[in-house]
Design a protein that fits this description.
This protein is an alpha/beta fold and 276 residues long. The protein has a single domain, classed as HUPs (Rossmann fold, 3-Layer(aba) Sandwich). The chain is built from 14 helices and 5 strands. Strands 3-2-1-4-5 form a 5-stranded parallel sheet, sandwiched between helices. α13 packs across α14. The longest helix has 23 residues. The protein is globular. The N and C termini lie far apart (54 Å).
C-alpha cells in the first residue's frame, strides 16, 4: 500500500473511530498543541458535529503560544489559553508526582502540563477531554525511530512500533488517566480505537517513515491530515513533545539547579516527600 492509498483509508477509519468516541457528547475539550496530532483530533471532532474547545497550556512568553493561536484560528476553533510561571511548575509538581506514582523525570515533565489541561477542562465545565496519545507510537513520530530504522531496517522498525504501542497503556495511558481522573475528567484517545490501531499496525513502515533521515516522520498521518483539511503549515510541522512546547522541562531543570540537585535527584526527592 502506498502513502496516498494508506492515507485515504486512514482518514475514513479515524473519522469512524472519533464518531464512536463522541457518540454521547455535544461538546468536548481537546489537549491542543497546534501540532498535527491534536489538530487532526480537533478537525475530526468538528466533522462529528461536536462543539470543540482546544485547550493550550504553557509557560509565559513561549513562542509556541503564538503557533497554537495561529493553528486554532486556521482550524476555526476558539482557543482556551492558560499561561503559567516557573513558580506554578514548582507548586504543582509534587501533586503530579503523587498522582502518577513514580519518580520518573520524563513522565513528571509530561504530567505537569497535562495536569493543567485537565484542570482547565474541569474549570470550563467539560467532562470529556480528547488527546492525540498513541499517534507517535503508531505512525513513528519520535526521533528515536530513525535510529531503529537505520539499525534494523523497516521490518525492525515495524516491530519496534508494535512493541511501543503494546506497552503504551503501562508507560503512557495509565499516567494520563490518573491526572484526568483526579479532575473528574474522562480522557478519550481516538487514535487508540481498535479500528485505527488495527489499520496503523498493518501499514508498512515505509509509509510512516520514508528513510532513516526523515525529518518529519508520520508521513501517512500527515497526508491524512491534509485530506481532512488541516492546513499545510500544521500538517508538516516538526514533532515537538508537550514537555518542550509548554516549557515545563526547561523550568524543572531550572528549579532543580536552584536546589543544587540534578533533575533526577530533585524529582526523586519530591516524589518521596509527596508520598511520605
Amino acid at each position: 500500500m502506498d502513502v496516498e492509498t494508506a492515507a485515504q483509508e486512514l482518514q475514513h477509519v479515524l473519522l469512524e473511530s472519533t464518531e464512536d468516541f463522541l457518540s454521547d457528547v455535544n461538546e468536548v475539550a481537546v489537549a491542543f498543541s497546534g501540532g498535527v496530532d491534536s489538530s487532526v483530533i480537533t478537525v475530526l471532532a468538528k466533522l462529528c458535529h461536536v462543539e470543540v474547545h482546544p485547550i493550550f497550556v504553557g509557560l509565559e512568553k513561549r513562542k509556541e503560544t503564538a503557533l497554537a493561536q495561529r493553528a486554532a484560528k486556521a482550524l476555526g476553533v476558539p482557543l482556551h489559553q492558560s499561561n503559567y510561571s516557573v513558580a506554578d511548575v514548582k507548586e504543582v509538581l509534587p501533586r503530579a508526582l503523587w498522582l502518577i506514582e513514580e519518580p520518573n523525570p520524563v513522565n513528571a515533565s509530561i504530567s505537569v502540563p497535562l495536569f493543567w489541561v485537565a484542570h482547565q477542562s474541569a474549570k470550563l465545565g467539560f467532562r470529556v477531554l480528547l488527546s492525540g496519545q498513541g499517534a507517535d507510537e503508531l505512525f513513528g513520530g519520535y526521533r528515536r525511530y530513525l535510529g531503529d530504522y537505520s539499525a534494523y531496517g523497516s521490518v525492525g522498525l515495524q516491530r519496534k512500533l508494535y512493541e511501543d504501542f503494546a506497552s503504551s497503556y503501562e508507560s503512557n495511558f495509565q499516567r494520563d488517566n490518573k491526572l484526568c481522573a483526579f479532575h473528574k475528567i474522562e480522557l478519550r484517545m481516538p487514535f487508540t480505537d481498535w479500528k485505527t490501531v488495527n489499520l496503523a499496525l498493518s501499514l508498512p513502515a515505509e509509509v510512516k517513515i520514508l528513510s532513516a533521515k526523515d525529518r518529519l516522520r508520520k508521513r501517512v498521518l500527515r497526508k491524512a491530515a491534509r485530506k481532512l483539511g488541516v492546513p499545510k503549515f500544521i500538517a508538516e510541522a516538526p514533532k515537538k513533545a508537550i514537555q518542550y512546547t509548554s516549557g515545563v522541562n526547561q523550568a524543572m531543570k531550572k528549579i532543580a539547579k536552584q536546589e543544587g540537585l540534578t533533575l533526577r535527584e530533585y524529582i526523586e526527592k519530591l516524589f518521596w516527600e509527596s508520598i511520605g
